[in-house]
Design brief:
Blueprint lengths: L2 E2 L4 E2 L12 H10 L15 E5 L2 E6 L2 H10 L9 H11 L8 H14 L5 H20 L5 E4 H18 L4 H18 L21 H22 L8 H11 L7 H32 L1 H15 L13 H13 L6 E4 L4 E3 L2 E3 L4 E4 L1 H4 L40 H18 E5 L7 E3 L3 E3 L4 E6 L1
Parallel strand pairs: 4-9
Antiparallel strand pairs: 1-2, 3-4, 5-13, 6-9, 7-8, 10-13, 11-12
Helix pairs in contact: 5-6, 5-14, 6-7, 6-10, 7-8, 8-10, 10-12, 10-14, 11-12, 12-14
Length: 456
């Protein structure tokens, strides 16, 4: 569903599910696309529960319960769901995103420090440089040339995270290996672990098919090479991985061997490029479909930057650009489902939580709830200009102790890349293409996003 008017945009979203919804049909739909399963009533700002083959599933869509799960009683819900752990463990091992307990407690402070906002002045210069290189490449295209925005943004963010995290140029060939490897992984992985619903509290290991192994091998080959360079003392000292290597040598209690370093490097890389690439892709779709918002954004860029390219120092003054990105994250959160597995019994609102139940906070639902947002499906960057959202109604980066460590990095990168490229190029969704959001591991437009690129 989508509606484009002269001065408004109801952004693309699937129709709410209607009709009978048996357990088997629900699981099959969720395996295909998580966004297809929700009824209109699921968007209400309240909790709900169902039972599938005896497994309790609780959808948390009331802000006070979101707070309880993610902050107030987070220790009971820190464990990621068997679906997410099993889906990503082959690729990320015990990386921070899916680890918990002692492993998470040891590594979270290290990773948080590595990507801390105080390092943004250094990382920002890399963002500026890499985006300028993409702008130069775009300037050599024929006016009106069509490209896939999802692939272009993935290449851009992969190069940025490579130079900031690894201190090395990734290069076109390696970037292609990682991007295609992860795209293939998403298509092949089963995001619903059937074993969990037939009595296995930890789910069942995924079937590592030859194609899945090949996708992982493409990614690990690139990351292993980078880690080896840093272990040999050949890496950039400002790079995130070099900092990790030095601190591990000073503090053996971190227990980071080469495999663990690769797991954290893979986690930083995947989180750092995939989520921002998806955000920028959806931002181009929204701006292309909302010329009045693009005009306001360009006016702001001209006022703040004049004719020069935006810099990381300009980002705090680019309020409307930030609002565009934040509204994009509201409408299209890169990780639209945040699942947790309850350790012990608890109570969420009037629902009694059973041990090992599946408890899910769904930003896709929370951000589009008519009880919590005015005209929730409408693209309105202005809603982020004058005031902040009510706490725990807006969680694109999760919340509480497990909030995304790279939040400020990702926001700064998204704003700077969008402003830099929008200043020089008119990006338009290709004629006849209608964006359709689909969720496997992350939220992408189905088939990518073909756009035309024209110099301003």
């Amino acid at each position: 569903m989508e509606e484009i008017g002269e001065d408004y945009l109801v952004a693309a979203h699937p129709r709410p599910f209607e009709g009978e919804r048996g357990h088997l049909k629900l699981l099959l739909q969720a395996r295909r696309d998580f966004l297809e399963v929700w009824r209109q009533s699921d968007y209400a700002g309240q909790n709900s529960q169902i039972s599938i083959l005896g497994r309790q599933i609780i959808v948390v869509n009331a802000p006070e319960s979101v707070k309880q799960v993610m902050a107030a009683n987070h220790e009971n819900y820190e464990r990621k769901t068997p679906q997410m752990r099993r889906a990503l463990e082959f690729l990320l091992g015990d990386g921070l995103f899916i680890s918990d307990g002692e492993t998470w407690q040891h590594r979270r402070p290290l990773v948080s420090n590595i990507v801390h906002k105080n390092r943004l002045p250094v990382f920002g210069k890399v963002m500026e440089s890499v985006t300028a290189e993409m702008a130069l490449r775009w300037s050599h295209l024929e006016p009106g040339a069509t490209v896939n925005a999802l692939y272009e943004m993935a290449a851009l963010t992969a190069e940025i995270i490579s130079r900031t995290a690894f201190g090395n140029d990734l290069g076109a060939d390696s970037a292609k290996e990682v991007i295609e490897g992860f795209s293939g992984y998403q298509k092949l992985i089963d995001s619903i672990n059937i074993g969990y619903f037939v009595g296995f509290d930890d789910g069942l290991p995924i079937w590592r098919t030859p194609k899945l192994k090949a996708s992982v091998a493409r990614i690990h080959k690139v990351i292993d090479r980078v880690v080896d360079q840093h272990l040999a003392g050949k890496g950039d000292q400002d790079a995130m991985i070099d900092i990790m290597v030095r601190r591990t040598r000073r503090n053996p209690n971190l227990k980071l061997d080469k495999e663990a370093m690769r797991n954290e490097a893979a986690t930083i890389f995947m989180a750092g490029h995939e989520t921002t690439a998806a955000t920028l892709t959806w931002a181009w779709y929204l701006i292309s479909s909302a010329p009045w918002a693009e005009e306001k954004m360009l006016e702001e860029i001209a006022r703040v930057c004049g004719d020069r390219a935006p810099t990381v120092e300009d980002v705090p003054q680019l309020d409307y650009c930030r609002a565009v990105i934040e509204e994009t994250l509201r409408l299209y959160p890169p990780v639209p489902i945040l699942g947790r597995q309850a350790r012990e019994a608890d109570k969420l609102g009037d629902i009694d939580v059973q041990p090992a139940s599946l408890v899910i906070v769904v930003p896709w639902l929370l951000h589009r709830s008519p009880d919590l947002w005015e005209e929730p499906n409408r693209f309105m960057p202005e809603r982020f200009l004058d005031r902040r959202p009510t706490p725990y109604t807006y969680v694109p980066f999760a919340a509480g102790p497990r909030i995304c460590a790279g939040l400020q990095f990702g926001l700064t990168e998204s704003i700077l890349c969008l402003a830099t490229l929008a200043q020089r190029f008119k990006v338009r969704v290709a004629d006849g293409f209608h964006a359709s959001p689909v969720c496997r591991l992350t939220l992408r437009p189905a088939g990518g996003l073909p756009v035309t690129i024209t110099p301003r």
